[in-house]
Amino acid sequence: MNYLLIPLLMLACAAPASRDIPKQNEDEENRKITSFEKVYVSSVEIDRVTSNGNTVVFRITGNLPNPAYELDVVDVEVDGTTITLTPMALFDPNVMAVQVLTPFTASATVKIPSAGEYTVVVAGRGKNLSRTMHLP
Prior knowledge:
about 140 residues, 5-stranded mixed sheet, 3-stranded antiparallel sheet
């Protein structure tokens, strides 16, 4: 009886027959699918003004939706006396991340045509911030 159990045990523990699975090409394997998305914004402040007065650096704070996002760029648009800042983050759906807000601080350099009152709008995910600021 023992002689019969040993071959059955060996047969049961043997690795299954392998099949050749067609491999995807390397470009598809290494490709990351990403998209740009807005982020949550909390505040906008003037960080500094250049000595000639026509360039202002704004400091924006907020949160990324989760660690799968990476802050990439702040889009800047100046239209008359309205400055619109839109922080954008790259999202990688291939990254598995804990659902926790991740704080960020970003800077945006803006050339202004002249000193005066400007409305600064920060376009965020879910809400926009709007402030009137006197820019020297």
